[in-house]
Amino acid sequence: MKKFLLILCAIAFVTSVSQARPKETKMSGWVSDEKCGAKDIDNADCAKKCAEGGSKLVFVSEKDKSVINVDNQDALKGHEGHHVSVVGKLDNGTLHVDKVAMLKQSGDAK
Question: 5: how many CB neighbours lie within 10 A of its CB?
């Protein structure tokens, strides 16, 4: 009986740990820097200049203009000021970007 309870507890523990992992999410928004945040989201020159000066890149959600920190900065390099779609994992308010894809800018021809 003790062995059965021990196995049952082990299964419950493994199940709870596996459910605690962050789930993959897809979001649209802009790549900005932590100084500008949502204020100047489509200014690529400003974001690049700030990033070169040591400011971290962030993701600004299209949905609510919330600013989300990104733990793997290299994934966003070259997309400063761009409107993008990202796929990644959101964990405790920090995004780990797995994929980045450019979206059409508002002034682009259709």
Answer: 9
On whether the CB atoms of residues 88 and 69 are closer than 8 A, the answer is no
Domain residue limits at 98: 23-102
Helix (H) or strand (E) holding 58: strand 57-61
Helix locations, the chain, DSSP H = 2-19, 44-52
Distance CA 81, CA 8 (A): 51
The whole-number pLDDT of residue 5 equals 66
C-alpha distance from residue 57 to each of 22, 42, 104, 107 (Å): 21, 13, 20, 24
Q: Could you tell me the CATH number of the domain that includes residue 69?
A: 2.40.50
Domain count, the chain: 1
Beta strands 83-91; 94-102: pairing state: antiparallel
The pLDDT tens digits of the residues spanning 57-85 come to 999 999 999 999 999 999 999 999 999 99
Rounded Cα gap, residues 1 and 104, in angstroms: 62
pTM of the model: 0.75
